[in-house]
Each structure stands twice: as C-alpha cells, then as structure tokens.
Amino acid sequence: MRRILAVIVSVVVLIALGAAPGSEAAKRGGTLKVGMEGNIPHMDGTIALGTPIKFYRETMGAGLLLLDENYKIVPDLAKRWEVSDEGRVITFYLHEGGTFHDGTPLDAAAVKWNIDLINGRVVPAWLKKARQKNPKLKFRSSYRLYLYQIKKVEVVDKYTVRVHQADVGKAQTLPALAGYFTRLVLVSPTAYDKAGDKFKKHPIYGGPFKLVDYKPKRHVIIERHKGYFHKDRPYLDRIEVYYMPDANQRLNALRSGQIDVILNVPKGLVKTLKRTKGVKLYQGKSATTFAFPINNQRGPWKDIRVRKALVCYGVNRKLIVRTALRGLTVPWVTFSAPGSSDAIDLSAKCPFDPAKAKKLLAEAGFGPSKPFKFVMTINNTDPTFVEIAQVMKTTYASLGVKMDIRVVDRATWVNLFVRKRVTDMSLQDTVPVLDTNSNSHTFFSKTFLDYYMMKDKKLDAMLEEWRSTMAPEKRKAISHKMQTYMFDNMYYAALAGSPYIQATKDYVKGWKFLNKLVFDMKDVWLDK
User: Fold this and answer.
1) By the 8 A CB rule, do 36 and 263 touch?
2) Which tens digit of pLDDT belongs to each residue from 360-372?
3) Under 8 Å CB-to-CB from 98, ≥6 apart: which residues?
C-alpha cells in the first residue's frame, strides 16, 4: 500500500443561495464593466501568455486547483486530492455535474485529454489536418512549461483522475496547477479537437462565464455559464471588458461610471484615485517586479563587466522608486518578487556607483572615444514605462552611455522581446512570481521560451534540483542559491518591486485581489 505523504482536503462551506463568503447577502445579476489596458491577438489561452489573456482565460475557465488570498493552494474543479509515492502520484477527486460551455461533460476523461494534449499524447484533428500541409508544424502550449513531468494520466472513474510523474518536476505540479502564470485551465476536448483557428475567436472553457462576443481592440463580452459545477455561482449575469490602452481614458471612465473596474492601475494615477470618492483600491505585497531585461547573448551584453556596469552600479534604483514609482515599492535586484514566498533581498550589494560603472565600462573597452550605445524598447500601455526610461537615459548619459528609447504597442513589444529576442534592453512589469520556479521558463534553457537568454547549464541544474525536491524548506534554500547565482552573474536586471494595484467602484463586492497570480470572478457581485 502506498504511503500517503500528504492529503489536502477541501473544507466544504455551505453557503445559502445569494450569500457571499464572509460578507453581507449577495445580490444576483447585473453587468460588471472592466477597463483593460492590453489588446490580445486571439483568445486561445493554451498557447499564449500575458496578463490580458490570463484574465480572460481564468475568468471563463476552470482548472483543478486555485490559490486563496493568502496564496495557499485550494480546490477548484478538484474538491480534494492525495499525494503519494514520494510525490510521484497525485489523485484528484472532482466536483460532479459540471459541463464545458458547449454542454459536454467536465469530468476525469476531459482532465486526462487536456493533460495529454499539453504533453503531446493527444493530437487534435485540426493539427493532424494542418500537418498534412506542414509536417513540421508543432503544438506548443505554455502549460507544458511546468507540466511536462506528468508521464501518465489515469481515469479511475468518472470523477476521479490520477497522475503519475517523473521525479524531476514532481515538486512543481501542485503550485503550477494552482497559481503559476500558466495555471492549467481546461478546454472542451470536443470543441478544441475540431476548432483549430476558430477556437482563437471563440474558446470553449468550463468556468463560471462563457464568451458571447469578442471584437479585437474593442471589447470582450462574457455571460454566466449555467452548467458551472458550483450551481450557486457566479453572481453576475455578465462581464464586459473594454480595450482602453490610454491610462487617463481608464481613469475618466471609472470616475464617470462608464466602467466599474480598472484591472491594472498605472502608478501615476494612484494618488488621484485615492482621493476619488466611491472608489476602492486593492494592493498587497508585490508579487511582481519591474525589470529592465537585457539579452545576455546579444553583442557586448555577453561581457559581465558591461552587465555589472549597466545592470548594477549604473542604475539609480532609489531615484526611480521615489519618482516614477511614486514611492509605492522598494528597490529590488533579485529574481523573486519582494512578496514571493522565497524572496531574498540583495539590493544593498548593488548601490548606485557611477565611478565603479565607468571603470567597468572602460575595462570592457568603452569610453569617451567609443561610447556604449543601445536601444531600450518599451510598450505604451503604462506611462510609468516612459518615466522610468527617461530617468535611466539621463543617468546612463552621465556615464557616457547613449541610450535611445523606442516606444511600441504591446503586441509589437511582445513580438520583439519575447518571440524574436532582438531587443538590447526593455522594461517589463513581470508576470507574477509565486516562487522562483514559477517564472523560470524565462531563463531555463531547456524550454522554448527562455527569452532572458541566460543559457547557463549550472543554473539549469539548480532549477531541476528545485523541481525534484518535495520539502519546502529545502526548495527555499535552493531558490536562494539560484537567485544569488543569477545576481552574481548579473543575468537578471531587476529594478524594483512592481506595485500591482486594482481599482473598483465601492459597490463592487466579493472582489479577490491576488496580485495577477489568479483572477477569480465567481464571487463578485454588485451592490447597486
């Protein structure tokens, strides 16, 4: 008999219909209107990253697990689970009676199909057809970045599913399913098998809301799904999300009542919103960082002296925090965010020291007769990016460094920075970091998405040790070792914590603030 290492059982809370958790009686119905800063090219959340598509994927979708507001793993579709055989086996017991948005069953067979799809054991019909024209066509799901270790999925019965794992990777499965940036959200096997590009315009998930209308660069409209496995949720009838790339447009729309929520408040608007009657701000420990990532394999950036000069000593982090970031956060130099579970603060080792920066640049062959030149590419979704870039340009100029600023729309920025990897330096409000592993696809050279381009086998080995270690305290020690190693090599250009702030009208109730780690809208209701 297998030795049970851990059993995590959900606490079943019986809530009378119409009662919100820990709150006054909820009102059913109504439409929530959201201002969204970023456009998305399509709605297929199985193959795309980014905060906007994450919001849609998780608002419409259901996964096995979730995070609560204390970042603890809690049930979603899986009402309870067991971990056995030293972490190699996990058995999930599912809620019964739920359906996908097309009416097909949300059950153990669907869970197995989804995980097998991610790991290449299922090839959908649309892909088979496409490969007749292009045999080399690959299916690359972002979920695979953290679920590749699942080697076999077993359907025990209609609502019980068991996964069998390799040793390398077994420690990341539960947190990845619950709250990594690529938290698994299930798609309808029937719909996804045949849909192909149609799924990008009309995805079929199994969560509390279903898609009604999607107009790129305009709006996304979703409505309550009657087949949701929590029969008394959601409370809202409808959510309307409007594309508003201009920060002041979002501010004015919230103040006038055209929208009820700003999903991501630019730092420069926080003070104004604090003084605005009828508005509530949400902010917690920072789970993200502001970074100015460099391409470690691009030209002079391969030289550690250049990296130390321009990533460490040549950056006035305190000035940027005080000005562009409005004093809302702290200077930061390591990979995990200030609010993450394994954060390590090495900021004191990276003081602003222009003399030391100039000396390092001179040693690398740069000076008055041969100034170091590069371009910082930023996106236009937040005025804070421009403010930070201007401060850095001025500071670098005092070192004899010439930095040009290129501003592009978000889609272009993603293409240049993430996909093509042709930027020298950028500014990034990072994806959320639950722990060091949760954003490690950016540097793990064995993935297809290592756009920080560190390419270091020692770092890869440390990460795989983390992913194989079940004991939390041992993982934390490995994490600190990784972060220190990245810092010593100046691979990661962290700037400061990134204060993620959301704003709602005060009549929006049941709102859960989880620092971009999870978007959970099923308990939201309107008191008006």
Assistant:
1) yes
2) 999 999 999 999 9
3) 62, 77, 105, 106, 107, 206, 227, 228, 229
* pLDDT on residue 383: 84
Residues 6+ apart with CB under 8 A from 38: 50, 51, 52, 243, 245, 381, 410
CATH of 29-247+502-526, one of 1.20.120.450, 3.40.190.10, 2.60.120.10, 3.40.470.10: 3.40.190.10
Give CATH superfamily name and number for 289-497.
Dipeptide-binding Protein; Domain 3 (3.10.105.10)
Instruction: Choose among 4, 28, 8: nearest CA to 177.
Output: 8
Burial class from Cβ neighbours inside 10 Å (0-12, 13-18, 19+) for residue 369 reads: exposed
Please give the pLDDT value at position 51: 78
Low-confidence ranges of the chain (pLDDT < 70): 1-23, 45-49
Rg of the chain over Cα atoms, rounded to whole angstroms, equals 23
**Cβ partners under 8 Å of residue 160, min gap 6:** 91, 92, 93, 94, 108
On whether the CB atoms of residues 311 and 447 are closer than 8 A, the answer is no
Query: Amino acid identity of 104?
Result: T
Whether the model clears a pTM of 0.90, i.e. scores above it, the answer is no
Instruction: Tell me the two tokens of residue 32.
Output: 């929530």
What residue ranges do the domains of the chain occupy?
A: 29-247+502-526, 289-497
Predicted confidence (pLDDT) per residue in 230-251, tens digit: 999 999 999 999 999 888 999 9
Q: How many beta carbons lie within 10 A of that of residue 345, not counting itself?
A: 14
Which residue from 424, 429, 466, 425 is spatially nearest to 444, judged by alpha carbons?
A: 466
**CA geometry: angle 48, 50, 54, nearest 5 deg:** 80
The closest of 326, 383, 320, 384 to 352, measured between CA atoms, is: 320
Instruction: Please provide the DSSP assignment of 375-420 as one string.
Output: EEEEESS-HHHHHHHHHHHHHHHTTT-EEEEEEE-HHHHHIIIIII
Q: DSSP strand E in 468-515: where?
A: 494-497, 502-505, 508-509
d(CA 323, CA 316): 11
Task: Tell me the per-residue pLDDT of 432-443, one tens digit each, with 9 for 90 and over.
Answer: 889 999 999 999
- Structure confidence at residue 1 (pLDDT): 39
Residue with tokens 């299930």: 186
Instruction: For residues 434 and 19, give the distance between their C-alpha atoms in angstroms, rounded to a whole number.
Output: 30
Report H helices in 283-336.
304-307, 317-322
